[in-house]
Each structure stands twice: as structure tokens, then as C-alpha cells.
Amino acid sequence: MDALPVETDAVAQTSPQIEAVAPLSFPERPPLPTWTVKQYFALEEFTRTRFEYLDGQIYVMTGGTNNHSAIKMNAAVEIGRQIRESQCSLRNSDMRVKVGDRRYIYPDLSAVCGPARLDDNNTTLLNPVLVVEVLSPSAVAYDRSAKLDFYRSIPSVRAYLIIDQHQIHVELHSRTAGGWHWQTFSDIHDVVPLEALAGRLPLSEIYRGITIERA
Questions:
Q1: Which residues of the chain form CATH 3.90.1570.10?
Q2: What Å distances lie between residue 211 and 68, 75, 93, 167, CA to CA?
Q3: Any residues with CB less than 8 A from the CB of 171 and at least 6 apart, and which?
Q4: Does domain 66-206 have CATH number 3.90.1570.10?
Q5: Cα separations (Å) of 49 from 8, 17, 43, 119?
Q6: How remote is the C-alpha of 5 from its chain's centroid?
Q7: DSSP per residue over 158-207, as a string?
Q8: pLDDT tens, 53-77?
């Protein structure tokens, strides 16, 4: 999903901890406020809204498209079916993942094998083995660069899956003994190996019922 920065005046009426900044004349604009982790958690609890938190800045999680939602569900259903009898389990986009001391994000899907290590009153997952993002147009560069670095920094993560919603295209970043390995899949008959879960994810299942609009 897309993430938009939260400015002070956008939350001044909902959070008692933030004071509104006097507007400046065009083309200047007030600097974004810096939030502590404690304030971030308090804002989420107060507003009942999910935000991403990156180095003191807070970003609103916006809604997704029909394809985004359907692809995410398709992937979850197929992965969930395969790991049902295993020690692995899935989490949806309501589960926050910690990717640094001052960085918290919400992947579209995440999976954990064995006991989940949780923090912050069981709202933050610390040990995902797989994370999945379905690309949104405004977040393509973010998901393929910064988020890639974030997820690779988590010792438990063995695979990061990026799924395109506008074309049949899937990218898999896998942790190996020799480093990270990158693979791409663009044929509907391709199958993505999910060694982290001892499973396989066919593109035909990811894109089941999805209409790809040709440019």
C-alpha cells in the first residue's frame, strides 16, 4: 500500500500531543514534525489508524486497488493452504514489522515459522521469514529499494516477494549462503520457489481471476 507523510496540521485535531504549526506563505511549507517511537504508538492507538514510522517521520497507509486486494488474498490463500500442516503461519497487513530501532512498517503479508517473537503488546512482529508486497504505482521505487534494504536487515527474513498488480511479474529476493539472490518470473506458468516455507507459489494462483489492463 501507499504511504503518505503525516504533517502536523493533519493530526492536530486528533492527537493532543501535537501542536499545529502556523502555515507559511507559498512556496514555503512548514517542516514535518519529528515523532518519538512512543508518540507513534500513541497516535496509532488514539486514532485506530495504521501508520508507517521511519526515523521520526510518520506516513499514512492509504487504501489499495481491487487488483491489489485480490492478488494479496490469492497469495495468502495459496501460501496458507501449503503451510497449514507446518510450523509456519501467515500474518496479514494488520501486523506491524520492526525493521530497525526507529523503523516500523506494514507488509502486505508476512510469514513466521515456529513461535512468533512479538513486541509492543503483541502488535509488532520481530521474526518474519517471508515478507510480501504487492506493488502500488506510487510506491514502486520504495518497495524495490528502501523496503528491500529494510527487510534484508532483519536476520530472520529469508525471502522478500514483490508482486506487480498491473502486469504478470513477480520478483523474489532470497537469502542464500553466498548472499542475496534475485529472480524474476513473468510467465503465467512460472512457479516461485518459497524455500523459506518449503513451498511453491504458482503465478497462475497469484493472478487467478485478475484482469490485467493492457497499456
A1: 66-206
A2: 11, 16, 23, 9
A3: 144, 161, 162, 182, 183, 184, 185
A4: yes
A5: 16, 16, 8, 18
A6: 16
A7: -EEEEE-SSSS-EEEEEEETTEEEEEEE-STT-EEEEGGGTEEEEHHHHT
A8: 999 999 988 778 999 999 999 999 9
